[in-house]
């Protein structure tokens, strides 16, 4: 679900374990030393978005990670997609939409447009001319709940990209 029970610590290695992606677990100390416990720099250079730990477990902890995954794909010009990760995300997408508020999903989608390559957030990674499954599932969910703000001020912007 969306269990955001955060425990604060001064130990960066422990803190990095709760992060969703390796690129979000890079720390810079006040003396300029970089601490990268999960090879986040390498993954960024390879344009690879890598979950920390088991993907299914991380998604079950917080369904918003599905939408964050697609948001961060838009940071890369040529993102490398892990097909096994995408299967897990696909399997949990509709469940995520049942548990997350429409407003939270809409806000995450709007952030996707601010990325350098937003098309990668929205397209099917096997066929760049098609929308990703999560876009269609979100549209169905917004229609089901008559969430006009999400339809008219958010999802309609995706159409411009295709």
TrEMBL record:
Entry-linked SUPFAM superfamilies: Nucleotidyltransferase, Poly A polymerase C-terminal region-like
Q: Name one GO molecular function term.
A: nucleotidyltransferase activity
List, separated by semicolons, the cofactors it needs. Answer: Mg(2+)
Keywords for the protein's UniProt record, in alphabetical order: Magnesium, Metal-binding, Nucleotidyltransferase, Transferase, tRNA processing
The answer to whether the entry has keyword Transmembrane helix is no
Q: Which GO terms describe its biological process?
A: tRNA processing
* Domain Poly A polymerase head intervals: 5-49
- The entry's protein name is Poly A polymerase head domain-containing protein
Organism the protein comes from: marine metagenome
């Amino acid at each position: 679900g969306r269990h955001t029970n955060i425990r604060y610590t001064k130990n960066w290695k422990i803190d990095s374990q709760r992060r969703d992606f390796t690129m979000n677990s890079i720390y810079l100390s006040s003396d300029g030393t970089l601490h990268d416990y999960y090879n986040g720099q390498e993954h960024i250079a390879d344009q690879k978005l890598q979950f920390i730990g088991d993907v299914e477990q991380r998604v079950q902890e917080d369904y918003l990670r599905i939408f964050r995954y697609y948001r961060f794909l838009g940071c890369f010009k040529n993102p490398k997609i892990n097909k096994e990760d995408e299967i897990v995300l696909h399997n949990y997408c509709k469940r995520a939409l049942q548990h997350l508020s429409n407003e939270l999903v809409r806000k995450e989608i709007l952030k996707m447009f601010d990325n350098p390559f937003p098309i990668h957030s929205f397209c099917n990674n096997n066929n760049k001319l098609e929308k990703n499954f999560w876009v269609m599932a979100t549209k169905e969910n917004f229609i089901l709940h008559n969430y006009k703000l999400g339809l008219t001020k958010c999802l309609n912007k995706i159409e411009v990209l295709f």
